[in-house]
Amino acid sequence: MKKRVPLIIIFCVGTLFVLAIFLPFPPFPAMEGEVSVWFDILKGFAFVLGGGNLIRVTADKIRKGHPDRFYLWVTLVGFFGMLVVGLLQLGGPIAPGGDFTTEGLWFRRIYDGIFAPCMAAIFSTLAFFVSSAAYRAFRAKNREATILLIAAFVILLGRTPLGNSLTAWLPDFLNFLKIPWLFEKILMYPNTAGQRAILIGIALGIISNSLRLILGVERSYLGGERS
Amino acid sequence: MTMWDMIVLWIGGAMTLMIFSFLYKDNPFYKFAEHLFVGVSAAFWMVKAIQTTMIPNMWAAIWPKSVTGILHAAQHTEPNYVRLIPLGLGLLLLSRLMPRIAWLSRWAMAVLIGFTSGTYLVRYLQSDFIAQIRSTLIPLVVVTPQGLDVIQSLLNCVLVFGVLCALMYFFFSLEHRGVVGGISRAGIWVLMVAFGASFGYTVMARISLLIGRIDYLGEWLQSFGKIL
Hints:
The complex is a heterodimer. Chain A has helices spanning 4-19, 28-63, 69-87, 106-137, 143-158, 161-166, 179-188, 190-214. Chain A is mainly alpha-helical. The two termini of chain A are 14 Å apart. The mean pLDDT of chain A is 87. By secondary structure, chain B is mostly helical. Chain B has a domain at 139-228. The longest helix of chain B is centred in the last third of the chain and has 50 residues, at 178-227. Chain B is extended. The mean pLDDT of chain B is 89.
């Protein structure tokens, strides 16, 4: 019951959606659209589950006297504050499509004051870490590292006015040495070749993993005995 | 700028500085901003999911009269009881929060995984696998009305042989020695160019975000002048 039923469900649902491609008569063509909506609804439930799990884990740590319990309270206050403001639609209603850009909406104020600045600041601090990592890793120690370094350097320079002006003095017959030309060609040819090979590999991986899941070979999602 | 706009700007500026303080070292200000962000973002995505998906696609479909006047799209529509299925599956998913019946969530997960596997199997076969191979089948010798285009021919060769070499690098059924080893080494070079390009773009994206934040802090500093 606990392990066999999920395997049967996956086999039936997976096979049904593979077969739906080969059966172009009702209800099969419309089925994918309807189930996509179910999928979105279930994603919504997954967010609710994530919120519930956050409360459970945080409350558990506070109860056990975690040294960071003050900050855990901050998490809970932030969570419930945003939840109440969003669900009760304080300051005005959120539009049906979820548009919360209306002036005066508290949900938008918290978004503008806390969510957006924190997210942008966290991601922008990565600029420092990426730079420091690059300083240590980007040494032309061997041929591969040199190629990586040159490609990254050309891409970075190719997008800036400095890159354009550095090689602008070159005559037209040496056009292939100009950074904008190199930038464009590196992106369009060797970069596309590498990305394409990776994409083909990913596609093969997803196809084989999908088959493994449908046929019940891959069962790690069922978890261990305890879960 | 209204008083509320000013308060939001000040909180945003303070939050930005608290996050940036981590560049020095881990400290209480950073921890405060980090934990607040975790709580707020979890609730943000939860409210977004409820408002954009669960209410219009599930609640309004099952019980349209309850949202008449609130959701215009749901007016005068008949109840769609098929949507009770995702409601049931969603409730099964939430059983994960109750350890005794947590195993029931596997049924909902199984539907999600089955749907994803079935659709992805065909979709990736069509869009990534076949389409990428088709795009690689291009002429190696490019002839224009003006004659042989040497540069374009070379570039096309780089693309076609680059894909083949990089694929050979991922092919583990043959030992990478001799000719195969040489091809796979060329594949590594192609992959290094791709990684270098991706790295360059990542750095640029992060730096543009940093510029945006510094711009925001500039706006924040200007607000001092308005107060004084």
